[in-house]
Amino acid sequence: MVGGGEGAFIGAVHRMAAALDGDWRLTAGAFSTDAGRNRRTGEQLGLDPARVYDSLDALLAAERALPAEARIDVLAIVTPNHLHAPMAIAALEAGFHVFCEKPMAMSVAEAEAIAAAAKASGRTFALAFTYSGYALVEEARVRIARGDLGAIRLVQVEYLQGWLSAPIDEAGNKQAEWRTDPARAGIGGCLGDIATHAFQLAEHVSGLRAEAVAADLTIHVPGRRLDDDVSALLRFGGGARGTLKASQVAAGEENGLKLRIHGERGGLEWAQMEPNTLTLRWLDRPAEILRAGGPGLSDGASGLLRTPAGHPEGYVEAFANLYRGFAAALRGESGGWFPGVGDGLRTMKFVEAVVANAASDRKWTRIDPGESV
Amino acid sequence: MVGGGEGAFIGAVHRMAAALDGDWRLTAGAFSTDAGRNRRTGEQLGLDPARVYDSLDALLAAERALPAEARIDVLAIVTPNHLHAPMAIAALEAGFHVFCEKPMAMSVAEAEAIAAAAKASGRTFALAFTYSGYALVEEARVRIARGDLGAIRLVQVEYLQGWLSAPIDEAGNKQAEWRTDPARAGIGGCLGDIATHAFQLAEHVSGLRAEAVAADLTIHVPGRRLDDDVSALLRFGGGARGTLKASQVAAGEENGLKLRIHGERGGLEWAQMEPNTLTLRWLDRPAEILRAGGPGLSDGASGLLRTPAGHPEGYVEAFANLYRGFAAALRGESGGWFPGVGDGLRTMKFVEAVVANAASDRKWTRIDPGESV
Amino acid sequence: MVGGGEGAFIGAVHRMAAALDGDWRLTAGAFSTDAGRNRRTGEQLGLDPARVYDSLDALLAAERALPAEARIDVLAIVTPNHLHAPMAIAALEAGFHVFCEKPMAMSVAEAEAIAAAAKASGRTFALAFTYSGYALVEEARVRIARGDLGAIRLVQVEYLQGWLSAPIDEAGNKQAEWRTDPARAGIGGCLGDIATHAFQLAEHVSGLRAEAVAADLTIHVPGRRLDDDVSALLRFGGGARGTLKASQVAAGEENGLKLRIHGERGGLEWAQMEPNTLTLRWLDRPAEILRAGGPGLSDGASGLLRTPAGHPEGYVEAFANLYRGFAAALRGESGGWFPGVGDGLRTMKFVEAVVANAASDRKWTRIDPGESV
Amino acid sequence: MVGGGEGAFIGAVHRMAAALDGDWRLTAGAFSTDAGRNRRTGEQLGLDPARVYDSLDALLAAERALPAEARIDVLAIVTPNHLHAPMAIAALEAGFHVFCEKPMAMSVAEAEAIAAAAKASGRTFALAFTYSGYALVEEARVRIARGDLGAIRLVQVEYLQGWLSAPIDEAGNKQAEWRTDPARAGIGGCLGDIATHAFQLAEHVSGLRAEAVAADLTIHVPGRRLDDDVSALLRFGGGARGTLKASQVAAGEENGLKLRIHGERGGLEWAQMEPNTLTLRWLDRPAEILRAGGPGLSDGASGLLRTPAGHPEGYVEAFANLYRGFAAALRGESGGWFPGVGDGLRTMKFVEAVVANAASDRKWTRIDPGESV
Fold first, then answer.
1. pLDDT in the model for residue D4
2. Which of C228, D96, D97, D279 has its CA at 20 to 30 Å from residue D287's CA atom?
3. A10-20 vs A315-330: helix axis angle to the nearest 10?
4. What's the pLDDT at C335?
5. Where does the Gfo/Idh/MocA-like oxidoreductase N-terminal domain start and stop, copy by copy (chains A, B, C, D) (predicted)?
6. Domains, chain C, ordered by start
7. C250-288: pLDDT as tens digits
8. Facing residue for A295 by CB, picked from C280, C285, C294
9. Which residue from B13, B155, B167, B169 is spatially nearest to B78, judged by alpha carbons?
10. Inter-chain CB pairs, A–B, below 8 Å
11. Where do the DSSP E strands lie in B167-275?
């Protein structure tokens, strides 16, 4: 693992997620550029001090030198955004698989470089679009893919947080600080941090590709350098229409990721904060409530669950499903899904299209200029 | 009352709403151009057959000829949209107050003509933006007006219905038929029918004016002549950003009008299908649930309620609040609020701006070209 | 109407409920023993002063003397409990139908006297068990009656209010005062006031008869003379087991009447504060949400609704359904259901059984000693 | 670990819960009396084959013989109920701490024997009353303990499952089979399996002791040998009144554990299926929604959480909190709470009191006959 020293949030989540099913063991790390913090983190995690490295370079060099069965298999990257691409490329080129925090990179160009490095090295790149790991998200995907809703007409996705409502980035909050710093976060603030989750979820579940976007990108908190609020209209292939709303200044909201998709015959709704429920509403019959562990789930969704109905699974379990799927894929087992290069590239194109559109007087911007719309 | 014969929906609602508090009595009508239907409706309602008229013209002429204390005070107009303006103007000019179904008219020009007629006649024009009659909507308005949320940053409003998902307008459904016919509905389908409710509610509660709109107007059901789906971004005065989503092809949805507004310090949420609850979420303290009849309500909201906490009031009661407010205003009492000419004009400008924007490649269209943005 | 002067709660509800559908008109009343209050109430309601009487006796005598087509048809009784029986009997004997507030009477003996008076006079007695007037309650009843859930095993009903948590009855609250006075309320406080609603609803919807009860009757507020809290176990015919919880000291609760019934194949849940939803849960398939106006409703339930799906109907509409059903029955129309003598007698037997059981060391008390269990 | 072989449910949960925070490592086990199953489980878990034992006796003997730093610290017991006491006593006497599935034992006498063994050996006994590990349960406990609600008047707890609605115990379902077999489950079916959870939660959170119970114990599924449905009235010290409902034949219900407690000034509600929310309702101000990770939580509750607000934690995390608390206590850290001997003894007394009361004609049975009521 690179990054994730004492006090960091997402590194600890990766460790819990990887530990949950017993598929993974943390054996080496370069957790912090602060030597003391790095060492202490290694100790707290019970690592062999010899495998707690000063830098990613040191880690890669030393691990490569170990016998194949002793060295790490996968590098988990949990650093701020600007380090994702160089680190991922270095690890892939050193022969290691990579499990990377999102967003994939700072730009489409960087993301494409990762994709090329993965291809050249024959190693696998996984990306932590955590929310697609929930069982009921998979159920939603399956239901749409098999046509239960008919042709899709509407895709509404939103992701509302409120924690950046005040200028805490200027008051020393580390999580806030790097996320609002273009040098470390990239060209998008809220856009890169959470709108990408929303976009990936919408495309992943709907099975559709967004072709064009019209967006409004706003900085509500004075002095902030990156957007803290995103509103967008989307046009999907096949004629579906979408809205995407993401905000980190929706004061009082927690982590409100919600997806609603309607087709000719009905609609579905899933909300991350009550993740074990999927509501299906129908034009001509009563709404149905699908529940984790309950009757009516597809095999794919059921396979992502660990407990019987009514024993809630949460965020860590969804995250663990990605690690589990990644492990299964590396073992060559079928059915081991995880988000990867494709998801990452699409979201980087979305980020660049939104930024371009927001600066333009023209209504629509194509998300993938290389594609014919 | 003009319109609202046997089988019509909204006419019956007006009658229930007006009856509820005992302020109004239905004494005359021209319910249908079908003579039999007109007569039968009058009978069912227990009217004096002499006051069941063949046409609005006949009604106005005859009622005007009655002594002042015997004639009607107010004409309720519950016809399809294209008749609103000519009938309202005729009634106002004949000296009667008007309570009109929304939308106000077919165009801004027509709406302005009504406004002029009201002014010239000294009569009052009320408009059935029903949803602003709910007590908890008033509470939301009061809370924002007095600054509880701080400066407003986000306004999200949505109105999702599914009943036009299939081409029922071509299969003889009368409610659907006229709503999708440009000659009777106007230039907006879903836009005129329900997006106007959403827009009025957003401006009414937020106390803000939307200055510009970027919109996507879609016909999802093949063969339909008017939009059945609206997506829009809004820019409000003062820097708030908005999204407005309205659809009549969100299969499985009922009458899902929902408003969320966030300011610097917190946000509020109100949903029409559970109208007796208003949720307030705060940046720095636990969320609060305000309930009809419960502690913490303003006097204004409490005054709109008829029953103690936990005895749900619904759509008819909200509607009745408009009739009650209108009656109070006509009696010269203070505090008798009802939507009127101002609300109607704003929504007609919104409709025209959306239609113009949807046909344009430019991103933003001003809602009121006469205003400096 | 007798009772329901200025400031009274339930009288106004009766008037709104009766007005809603245009079936009824209030023409006479004895609203208060306070002459000024009585007169003012009549004026506010627009009544002919000649038909605003000093007393029920005066009303009955005068109305009886009017020609049949001019006199009242039905007397609505909205006084405190101790007056229900003498007034109902007087009205029935005078040849008028009666629509009475619940509870029916102060005792089983009084209830039986009303039943006898109704029978002897050939007049009809209706009882305001309001909650059985909701459309989704009717749907629940129909579903169970037609066997959707299989044989019933569990009946859980609860009715939680908090408004008597503090000793407001000693602080001049009139609603609280008479409800906690044995002379006016009877032998049950919370028991008579709201547990009776819960009991009637449970029997009405389940179609089962409770045979025996084990109860705990408590006075939580020091100095109060009647119970403010009821807990009971019920045994129903056919082997179903029940729990009934009613409280008026559940601080913070509003009017939380909730019914859950489970059978061999599934269960249903209905809650008065969200009355337009009925949840059906199944052993072997996803839960379904039935909604007022939505697909899947029986004709009986649909017939109790006035508005399309998503336009919430509430307490007044449920109440109006009883008045509408009563009107239909008096007109001899089929399908006009309303609660009457049977419901009233059962609940009075329940009240007496609970009071007896609560004073006893024996676990079970039969609800109808005259029945063979 | 003893028990928890392939296919068992709760053993896997214990393993995930123990792994989550990195406090524990599984090093030895006797997973099944079936040798092949035992061996395969050990392999799947990556254990040293030498520490996968044929029996608990073998495990205890061999581990005891290891050097202190190599042997196990704690034995997790995840077998059917009838083995809890003998195994716990054997492990305690062999010098190991014990983390035991609930219920503690088959009888009060057995539970007391465990308590004595723990005392004699100086080892610690922890009991998997999982639900008391949720952060919002701790918050509820803290709020009541510090008097927010005032004196407690009502305690309502329910635990509804539906999975035993059909006779699946006779159709080969292993989970169902032993739970309905008196030889393995004890004198209570639903009573021992889930009513004990409800009872422990009610006492733990309210801080009150139930003194007497009046109960109805039912077998709804013909042929079943133990109760599948429990209804009980409770009288608590200090005058609070309680109801407890537990059922495993509430068809369609999942794992519906819900606790409501009301005091003089307000009430709280917590439901296991949405465990990250605690609702507080007040007599004189709006209801508040406390959320995991949100503002207003006590330090104790916050300390049980791993992720920020809006990232749901679930059943495994609650379970892990017990393992974490147990680890902290064994390390001698303050604040490391876990349920233990006291909780276990109380629930066994409750079980015996309910069984005795259900067979009696007397209304109330004391839960702890040794206590003065």
1. 92
2. C228
3. 60
4. 76
5. 9-127
6. 2-127 (3.40.50.720), 151-263+340-358 (3.30.360.10)
7. 999 999 999 999 999 999 999 999 999 999 999 999 999
8. C285
9. B13
10. 143
11. 210-218, 229-236, 241-247, 256-263, 266-271
